[in-house]
Amino acid sequence: MTALFALATSLLWGLADFGGGLLTRRTPALTVVVVSQSIAVVALGAVVAATGGWSEAGPQLWFAVAAGLVGPVALLAFYKALALGPMGVVSPLGALGVVVPVGVGLALGERPGLLQIAGIAVAVAGVVLAGGPQLRGAPVQRQAVLLTLLAAFGIGAVMVLIAEASTTLTGLFLALFVQRVTNVVAVGTALYVSVRRGSPALSADGFPWSALPVLAFVGLADVVANGAYSIAAQRGPVTVAAVLASLYPVVTALAARGFLSERLRAVQAAGAGLALAGTLLLATG
C-alpha cells in the first residue's frame, strides 16, 4: 500500500509539474501558483466542510502552516536557480530533496533491508539522470547551486512536515486546506511585491481563461499528491515512501516526450530505466 500511494504521488507531482511548466510559458509563475492553489483552496474547503474536518483542528496544524510557508520559498528558489542555469545541472540537483525525508526516517529508527538500500540508491540515481544532467559545457554559478540546494531542502522538508500534520483522513483534508491557504497568502504576497516593483502579473493576452482547466488540474493534482504521500509515509517506511514519491522528474520527462514529442536524451532514458529498476527493488524488498 505504501508503494502504491507513493507512486501515485510521483505520477501526480510529475503531471502537475508538466502542466505548470506549460502554463508558465505564457503566464508569470507566481500568478500560475496563486490561481491554481486558490482553486485547490476552494475545493478543499468544500471537502473539509462536507467531512467535518474542522473538528480535527489542533496543534499539529502548525506543521501544515510550516509546509505552506516552506513550499513557496523552495519553489521561488528553484525558479530563480533555473533562470540562472544551466537547467541541465539545476534540475537534477533539485531531486536531491529526497535526502531530507530519508534522513528523518533513518533518524527515527527505520532500518531498510539490503534490497531496499540498493533500491534507494538505484532510484535516486535514476531520478538525477532522468533530469538530463549537463556533464559539460557552461559553468555553474555558485548562487545557482546554493539556490538549488535550498529548493531541494525545502521540497524535502515539505514532505516531512505534511506527513506530520495529521493522523486521520479528515484531519489530512484539514491539514491540506491549511497548507494551501498558507501557500496562497505567501505567494500572493510575493506576487503583490513583484507587481509593485513593476513586474506584470499577467501576460499581454490578459487572464488565461482558456487555461482554467489546466490551472485547476495543476492545483488539485498537487494537493492529491501531497495527501497520497502523507498516507504513504504514515502506513509504511518513510525511507521507501520518500524515494518512490520522488520519481516525479521521470514522469515529467515522459509527459514531455508523450505530449510535446520532446526527445529524451540517452542519459534521461537510462535514468528512467534505473528509476524503474529501483522501484522494483523497493517494492520487492
Automatic annotation (TrEMBL):
Q: DNA repair as a keyword?
A: no
Keywords carried by this UniProt record:
Membrane, Transmembrane, Transmembrane helix
> Where in the sequence is the signal peptide annotated?
none
Q: Does Signal count among this protein's keywords? A: no
Where, by residue number, does the polypeptide cross the bilayer? 28-49, 61-82, 88-107, 114-132, 144-163, 172-195, 207-225, 237-260
**Domain EamA spans what residues?**
3-130, 144-283
Q: Which domain of life is it from?
A: Bacteria
The Swiss-Prot or TrEMBL record describes its family as follows: Belongs to the EamA transporter family.
UniProt-recorded name of the protein: EamA family transporter
